[in-house]
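Subject: complex prediction, re-run

Hi both,

The earlier run crashed halfway through, so I resubmitted it with identical inputs.
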Amino acid sequence: MKIVRHNLAIRFVHWVTALSIFVLIFTGFGQMPMYKRYNVDQIPGLGWSSDFMVTLNIHYVAAAILIFISLYYITYLIGTRRWDILPRRGDIKESIQIFASMVGLAEEPKNRKYLAEQRVAFLITAVSVAMLIVTGLIKVYKNLPGVDVSASLVFWIAQIHNLFTVILLLSIIVHLLAFLIKDNRPLVSSMFTGQIDRAYVERRHELWLAELAGPAIATEEKALIVEETEILEKVENKEESATGESNETIGDCEAIEENKVIERNEITADLNTV
Amino acid sequence: MAITRRTFLKRAALSGVTAAVVLSGTEKAAAQMSPHQEYATIIDLTKCDGCSHLDTPACVSACRSKNQPRFPQPEKPIGDYWPQPFHEDWSDKQQIIDRLTPYNWTYVQHLEVEHQGRKVRVHIPRRCMHCDNPPCSGLCPFGVIDNTPEGAVVIDTDMCFGGAKCRDVCPWGIPQRQAGVGLYKKVAPKFAGGGVMYKCDMCIDLIQEGKEPACVAACPNQAITLGTKEEMRAYAHRWADENQGHIYGDLENGGTATFYLSQIPFENIDQAIKEQENDGKPGRPSMEVGINNPLDEPGNMAKAFAIAPVAGVLAAGLSVYKIMQGEEQHEDSEA
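This time it finished cleanly. Structure:
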């Protein structure tokens, strides 16, 4: 049985962000004279990489896309009030516990939808992106015809933009390294399909599962998530019964209703054990 | 008709323009100069004779002796720009005066230019144009080229890493690199950076003291003139109108603080530079008429930055509305 972990909006945000940041980092590094020196422009298909104006224009396009998706995401968070990704009190301490558990020094704490270290990592990444956007916009502004800003502003904005590029790059590397840990791998496919095995959630995201069913979160949100899960099940059920005859639709629906009841009972049971 | 300084002064006085003051010597110029004034130079090619009687043109000598203390003193041996098998070292060629080098921030092009069926000798002092929106400054990855309020574009040689990007993005390829000096030596000299970039800084220190740049003061023919930007531009246009002459530097690269005046069209001059001067290496700038500023295209694109956030909010608003309406079943066909 599958549970919805990332809806389409979130997957859209994740992959557009990933793509735009990849392009921004590649073209951003291209703003330093390194692709010619290191023969990157000799690689077939990358001849353009040492042309500063080409990489700058691409950098601008990708930056506009990153701004678009950042505002999309912020609006999404505010609109849906799904704050699971934001850090909570005690997350630093819990993150240390998670890292200790990786080397067998501690037990992994019970997790919500995201692990404490994921929430902390998100904050670092989000702050980096925000700083890069702000400093980047100042860089764009100062290069417009007729705009003059002070030398020290130009200097410090460039340094801050470069510094947060390094921080963001490190946070992306850590993000990717997380998938060296076998237990994290089911999460990779969830960012493509949106779904994750219920068994995985039961084992690793106990608190999230409880939230899905319990009163700990707003009822409308719970209803949404349960509904998403139900829709998935409906699709699964349909696939399973695809060999059957089409006039059994009513029967199918009844079966779905039944499943839903069982599902709810299960969730309640889970909650009780918690 | 070639304009003399006297007739210019007379005209300027008649038209009530105070431009005359800055042309009448250092003392008065100093009185007129306030620290936040924007300056420009006029280089009148009808007056420049290339100092044919001298081994080194006066402006070049003056520039070299004034800036001598700031010339690079590389430690040797100098390593290559790994993995490339070269580095740019001019320290053994400091005497070169027929191109821009880290040791020669201005030079005079001596050309034979076709004009009205005749070959005319033309001498052109060349150096940084000090652009209004300098691509070198705008695109320096470390933000260490300052477009000063005075209009001078100045490289911070202490912070320059010597990647030479400024030279690549400059329409005239003005800044020149010396390896073996500068900040990169202290970081990872084999792998990153390449030295320090050097070019004319309009003698910003002298201007701030209320004095004229070295080349301006040294020119025996008053071919190079410093004044406020507006006065210089006004003079250039008036001169061009009265003499059916041509201006270079007013529109080029989106505007500069250098106005070349010539009776001969700059198209012909550019042609001559490309035929007689260009050796395929940096340091011998052409004079392409109406050359575009590489920052223009990204500047136009910057408008997208106003649209992007609005589009983001609107699109998300729609998504959120649909999600809150419980319409996720249609979600997969959206976005």
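Residues 5-293 of chain B form a domain with the Alpha-Beta Plaits fold (CATH 3.30.70.20).

- K.
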